[in-house]
Amino acid sequence: MFQRAFYILSLMTMLLCVTACEKATPPVQPVTLPATIKIVVTIQHKDLIYHASFSPDGKSIVTACGDGTARVWDAVTGKPLTAQMQTGQLLLKAVFSPDGKRIVTASADKTARVWDATTGKPLTPPMLHGDMVGDASFSPNGKRVVTGSGSTGKPGEARVWDATTGKPLTPPMKHDEDVVVASFSPDGKYILTGGGSAARVWNATTGKPLTSLMKHERMLQSASFSPDGKRIVTAGADRTARVWDASTGKPLTPPMRHGKLTFASFSPDGKRVLTGSWDKTARVWNANTGKPLTPPMQHEGMISVASFSPDGKWVVTASWDKTARVWDASTGEPLTPPMMHNDIVTVASFSPDGKRVVTASQDGAVRVWVVLPNE
How far apart are CA 270 and CA 273, in angstroms? Predict the structure, then answer.
């Protein structure tokens, strides 16, 4: 009798505790994000996508694929607009000219080439290099192309070419290791190159160096001009990003320490720097002081790349956790749910109007997403 009474009392005590706990713990409220996302286009390739970007008017997309082809697609319907631009080996980059009428490609077959963005037909003979070409881009007026070439552990070089004839305009701008970055300054007068653990600025007409080497302690991951062309930001595997004077090559900020970096770039107004890291985060920094402006934007895998929206208000990140995401550039808070892929996301960038995002993944898919602010 005593045991039965004790059992009933224990049961009543447990029920009272459960009831009290339920009353004490408020229900979890769903998080409402400021914006939603919607897939508007999916383009499926049979191989890895190394690059994808919008045209200057935002109406089309060019993709560079591991099967050695580039192609232009309608950004609204996903239908191909050109024949395949075929090279001998995998394509590492394909970008539009400033007027959107041409494409330049960089290939592992040791060539770069200019193509018609309407038909996909070649406009120049191959621009021949001594090693694989990892980077290529047009000058701001579209009349020249700069390329960077080399392979790991071997000397590399950059070179300027006539975008109409495909003929070289400068002697090679040489680095001790492969050149992974080659780009024009916003006014077209200078070339920025990055190879090994250092970046350098060159005269775009003569090919002569203008600055000392801007060195990291380990491999350089990225380098780019500020919008006004007066500064350069670099990211290194030595866990630092840094802002430099583009006329002297001298550092302007202390190192921005952020894990093993994969990427760094300026905001559209040049006042901030965005970095992405192996530590699974992206971060925004003050470009004048080198101090962080946001908390880390956290993924579950390393950051492949990150970029600002054209108005500088948003950031988009691509990650090895198979997602991309849009964030508030002022607070570092997420604005949208994750944009899902089936494999590592290697590309994420905004359309020129900032309303859409293009992503690409090692699953072979290129997707266009529209960002829809919640009312």
Answer: 8
Give residue-wise pLDDT tens across range 54-113: 999 999 999 999 999 999 999 999 999 999 999 978 899 999 999 999 999 999 999 999
The arrangement of strands across the sheet holding 231-236 comes to 220-225, 231-236, 240-245, 256-257
Q: Is 111 exposed, middle or buried (0-12, 13-18, 19+ CB in 10 A)?
A: buried
- CA distances (Å), origin 330, targets 67, 115, 262, 318, 337: 40, 39, 21, 19, 18
Q: What is the rounded distance in angstroms from the CA atom of residue 61 to the CA atom of residue 311?
A: 20
Task: Tell me the pTM.
Answer: 0.88
- Smallest CA-to-CA distance from 145 within 163, 165, 172 is with 163
Q: Can you give the length of the chain in residues?
A: 375
* 3-class DSSP assignment, residue 9: helix
**Closest C-alpha to 69, from 47, 101, 98, 100:** 47
User: What CATH number has the domain spanning 42-210?
Assistant: 2.130.10.10
Kindly report the CATH number that applies to the domain delimited by 220-375. Answer: 2.130.10.10
CB 73 within 8 A of CB 63: yes
Q: Nearest CA to 181 among 227, 214, 140?
A: 214
Query: What are the sequence ranges of the domains in the chain?
Result: 42-210, 220-375
**Domains 42-210 and 220-375 in one fold:** yes
